[in-house]
Batch of 2 targets.
Target 1
Amino acid sequence: MNPWDIYKKAFNAWENATATYMEQVLKSPLLLEPAGAWLSTMMKAKAKGDELAAGWWGGLGLPTKRDQERTLHKLNQLESKLLDLEERLAADK
Amino acid sequence: MIPLASLFGRPPPAVGQTPSDVVFAENKWRLLRYRAWHEGTAWATPVLLVPSLINRHYVLDLLPGKSFVEWFVARGHDVFCIDWGTPGDEDRYLTFDDVCDRYLGRALERTRRIAGAPKAHVLGYCLGGTLAAIHASVHPERFASLTALAAPIGFHDGGLLSAWTRSKGFDVQAVVAATGNVPWQLMQSAFHLLRPTLTLSKAVHMADKLWDDEFMNGFLALETWGSDNVSFPGACYQRYVDELYRNNALVAGTFTLSGKPARLEAITCPTLAVTFQHDNIVPPESAAVLLERIGSADKHRIHLPGGHVGAVVSKKAAQGLWPAIAKFWADRD
């Protein structure tokens, strides 16, 4: 067996053992609970920041990003409803 | 060293090369129809491919010679595929019902109408398989058959994704409120964490094959696809996690689609579930549970060695998996 093959064999053994160990660690509630709480805190902080910015922007009488998203979504929904109707008409023919 | 250096000058692999036409488009999604092989179509029932929402559809048409789509088109199938596209910021409000009922229903209806067939064979891959199974449980009359390719159905499977999404600390509502669409970067990081040593392992095993052009093309095409993810529409993601992951609603029989109960036992069409032994994204038991729950008597399982992606697009797949699916469809044409 050449040195490269020996290295690969050892690497595979290490990789398998490490992956199994990491899976146990990453499943552990001891890690998941604080990691989840940290993620949630960051997300809530971002949402609060966005809300403040939108409040300021809206205070100037301008449409916020959320207003624009809602309008675009409504337009997409309208297009979909027209297509629904078209399909119903085609089915009735 | 020379093959390693040549990696830097190598053009990116040309993925998704099978010629197709966009036959329908709505919001960001499109319905593709692959152009028939010279001899035309040989089968009466068209095939609709439903890829995952968060990955690009071209995984099923990776490279010439390694393309699921090309293989089936060459054998006379009329193949359609949904390209979900890239959600815009406004699609944060897109619901699970919009995607799974309205869009998928429309894709099926158009496929059926364009091909002039009463029903279609539907193949859903990964989350696409979950969407197809839910749709089939509410509209079974639209399906000539259902093929669920590594599709998660039971979400309490002991896997890492299941553990993370069900962790008490994970507040899905906070994530969606802050990000709108759940960023692909967040999901890709989670997928990397499923096996953190995988990147290193790939590098070590790639070293052996640096001079093998065919292997490297396939490898780089898969890496290209793996890094080309899309964000998950926020409202849709929230329901996906809350009801499917946390409540396991599909297996419990409590899931609804547009207000109608989505019970797996209502699936009466011929059904094929494909599971992979080393799939760490969708553990085999999560996908196999579909067959235990459906009402169809014509149900089959193929269990193969390999992982979630490799086993679907490898050379081996062209010798084992693809012919098996072709036979399943041919017997039910």
Note: The interface with chain B takes residues 8, 11-12, 15, 18-19, 22-23, 26-27, 29, 32-37, 39-40, 42-44, 46-47, 50, 65, 68-73, 76, 79-80, 83-84, 87, 90 of chain A (CB under 8 Å).
Target 2
Amino acid sequence: MRNLSVFFLSFVLLFSFCSQPQPQEQPDVVRVRLAAEPHTLSPINFSDAAGMQINNLLFQSLLGPDLADGQLKPVLAKSMPHIEQKDAVTYITYEIREEARWANGTAVTSDDVAFTLKVLKAPLLQNEHIKPQVAFIRDLLPDKANNRKFTFVCDGFTPEMELLSGDFFILPAYLYDPEQQLKNIPVAAFSDSLSKLENNDYLKAYAARFNTPVYNNSGKILQGSAGYLLEEWIPGQSVMLRRKENWWGNNLEISNLTANPERIIFHVIPDNTTAILSLKNQQLDVLSDIPALDFDELKQNQGVLKDYNLHTPDSYAAIYTGLNSRLPKFKDKRTRQAIAHLLDTENIIKVTQQSYATPTVGIVPPAVTEYYNTGLKPYKYDITKAKQLLEQAGWQQRSKGWYKTIDGKEQQLTITAIYKAGNNVVETTALIFKDSAGKLGIPVQVEAQESGLFSQNSRNHTFELFFRPINGNPFAFNFKPILHTSYAALGGTNYTGFGNAATDKLLDDINKASDKKEKAALLKQLQVVMQDEATFLTLYYQKERIAIHNRFQNTKVSGLQPTYDVSAFMLKK
Amino acid sequence: MRASLLVKKFLSALVLVWLMLSAVFMLSRMLPGTFGEEKMLQSQEGFYSQSNHTSRAAAYNELLKRTRQDLPVFYFSLAPINLQHNTGYSYLVPDPEWHGLHNQYHFWLNDLLQGNLGTSFVNAKPVTIVIREAGTTTLVISFVSLALTIAIALGAGIWMVQDTGKKLRKPLLATLVVLDSMPLFVFSLLLLLLLANPDAWQVFPVFGLGISLPGSEHIWLSQAPYLILPVFCLTLNNVPYLTNQFYNYLSGTLQAGYIRTARAKGLPSGQVVTKHALKNALLPVITVLSDMLPALVAGTVVIETIFAIPGLGRLLVSSVLARDFPVIIGVMVLVAIVKMFSNILADIAYATTDPRIGRRAA
């Protein structure tokens, strides 16, 4: 009996010790879940979504998407750039906002942009992840009369140059290069052969300092022109940001320049179950990427609904099927169309996305209403129609399957469907397709391939059919790299072999079109052609699944990553 | 145990550690892919191209050069066997290529001998700091859990072989079998859903180690509630196996002649077990305990992921995924050293438990 009493007493003591109040919410602090910790917070060498999201709160780029309307807008730049093409050179001119200030109160100037370009392009520095993105910028010409104005000199022209020229974080030269070791090396020198620079003593000395941990994780260095400062990074646990006092952007009242919450805390919680429990326990204010089944459960939970708003914006992430049209058995488009009719998209969405997805007629996301072709209907799962098309394409059905004589040799219609190993969504998609095709007597072999092998097989055209994701956006529609025949050679990114002279012209015209109406007409035409060709079959666009505490408004929930703008969050009055 | 013997054991353990780390070094370099390869060379498909393949490949080569991954892995390499272009059996004769001292292994070993584990590829931090940051919590969880596991297993083992525990022995052994067959992640999640859930019992904090906002007081003790559930889960994972071992060895020892003599002398049952049987039953258990390290490390991977606790387990997994070779090897160095010391401690414990072993070894 005495033992029992001691046990009971210990139990009560333990529980009362542990049941101390959980970390309570503070009104103006936003707590966000990160599924994985950023590897680095270096604004020029981050390589993951978390690094990107946090850097966006510390640093600013010249241009950036406004999540409120999905439009590309000026951030550090005063306005959208002026673009001029002369022969094989493009000149992109920007002017920085005169109000823009660094953390020490000094103005952001074209010298900072020039310095940033040098750091991005220099050899020896930890900049390899972003360096290829600015390879097209050869030089920067500062405006002699205005130290906030400058022109990028770029090689050739592609429509995304406008976006790419404004899509890197600008660094403060005073903080990153206090000894001005890079000042006397011109920007153009970083575009020529880099071997000379590798022996430059100033650059070597700068690299020795730059490639140290403080440039990756210290709040003393990671200070940009955005509204937040890095307060503390506890490895493996959390990243804490604090709003700058009297930040310059708050005086402008521009919708995409915000720093509202006083503090933002990113908690690293790798496991989904733990993250959902934390949400139920009110230890998180924002949880995104919620698994579909858990999201349905949250929708039924009154405790959660009382405190949280659940959102499902249309994303720009899609799953598509690619057919290798170079293979003789898939040469006839009626064969490809028959296969398209065997893709049970509705069922696939139901099983893999719990219906949190929208079927699409083509590559343009349904959320981009001005460019989406509403006149078309997505392929329906229809075995009868598939059978007719196969017969029209010359395939004959026998007891063991479908046969056709191709190049004098009888061939059976079989399909090997590949996907990147580890992606459960595409795995289930492939299995559903296998089942559907099996009903028509077409044997499908499903094969998961290791990431490197999958990419290699795609580039080398050694595949029959694949399932893979594609990420889009609402402001850039240059489909040449994935659909133009000039990218269809071995090693190119047009894996499926889509295209001919007419579609190449159409893609070129889309890139040239400056008028929105003209662009819309051309993009709608492209969707018609793509659906008819049935080589590149976009199945559906996913919906994001997000929960945000309802004490906040102006959350700017969007389909664009990171799917909400935490800097815009405002407490409800 | 004599000091000279200890030194001998230490030196032979050092050679073993070197061999083991060299094997890990070679195996890690045999993993498909290198740091940055997937992110830099296999660009995501999108509605526009952020860069062309040539500039990506050039940047990737620079990365390899900066991180010395462009160097040969070892002092020599063997040309792959090409059966198609070989006639006869000439392919059976190795065709080595000498690379000299300018190789990855040489640089790594040189640094290691100077106590330098290198810097992480992903954030340029010295590996020693990365490991220290992650290792503290893991060591606390592992050692507390190990101590609890030993105490519980020992207590339960002794209790079951005594008359007082006879009645509950069968159900307890059955329960231990059930617990032993449950994967750690299953009962970690079950306990989390039961004891850290507002829909059930909200007793423990859900994740992390707690943070304190600047200005507020942060004391070490405030982290204790966050560690109770993880330690409990890890302990529960190891208790069944160790209890079974203790129980079996104790039961076996209790059949020995000298135990019968002790009983015949009229010693109480408890004294027979603790004073006479336990010391002999501990000998095989020492081996089991010194081999528990891998299980503890494997357990912390699960525990740290589910309870969102920073630690060596999560660090090791993320380093392997990112191919951050210096950190992978660094963690293995730590594991090897701990293992080496646990073996030496086991030897000392053997000699202490049974002085004959010490005398024989000397």
Note: The longest helix of chain A spans residues 516-533.
